[in-house]
Amino acid sequence: MRFEQITPGDIDRVFDILEKSFPVDEYRPLEQQKALILAKKYTVYALYDGDSLVGFISVWDLATVAYVEHLAVALEHRGKGHGSMLLRELSMLLKKRICLEVEPPLTSEATRRIAFYRRNGFYLNSYPYLQPAYSQDRQAVPLLLMTTQAPLTQTEFDDVKSLLYHEVYQAF
């Protein structure tokens, strides 16, 4: 297995996994995703087994946090520890607090996902959070933030939310 930054040529393979792993309102349309690869603060890292793309993690390296926009493993590779490996590799690479969005624990799938992140050192922050719509044809999504190191205080949460809204969701 190797962990490395993807090349622009791999974006279609990444997008295929993305589409199969997230509801349509939780990711950008393909053309926006392709344009985003060129953004200075945004990087997509992948886990490869030979030439096979096992999974990926997309991250914004921001001033105070690293924001994981997406983490997904190809269906045929799930349940083998690859998601945890992607998080560990990212943590070693960036050495800063990591935050990400999750669906509220209202379904068994969302509850399992939150448990996965908790096992990987994340804390659930219960402050209300709305992921802005990625494009005009997408909807805003009520989510929660999870962070490494410790839960966020209200002030820290407000700062992170403001940073995400400004840097990530206003990128286009």
**Low-confidence sequence ranges:** none
Number of strands: 7
The rounded distance between the terminal residues' Cα atoms is 34 Å
- The succession of helices and strands, N to C, reads EHHEEEHEHEEH
Strand content: 25-35%
Describe the model.
By secondary structure, the chain is α+β, with helices and mostly antiparallel strands. The protein is 33% helix and 31% strand. It has five helices and seven strands, in the order βααβββαβαββα. It has helices spanning 11-21, 30-36, 82-94, 108-119, 154-167; strands spanning 2-5, 42-49, 52-61, 66-73, 98-102, 122-131, 141-148. Strands 1-2-3-4-5-7-6 form a seven-stranded mixed β-sheet, with helices on both faces.
Question: What is the compact description of this entry?
Answer:
It contains 5 helices and 7 strands, in the order βααβββαβαββα. It has 172 residues and is of the alpha+beta class.
List the main descriptive attributes of the protein structure presented here.
172 residues, alpha+beta, seven-stranded mixed sheet, 31% strand, globular
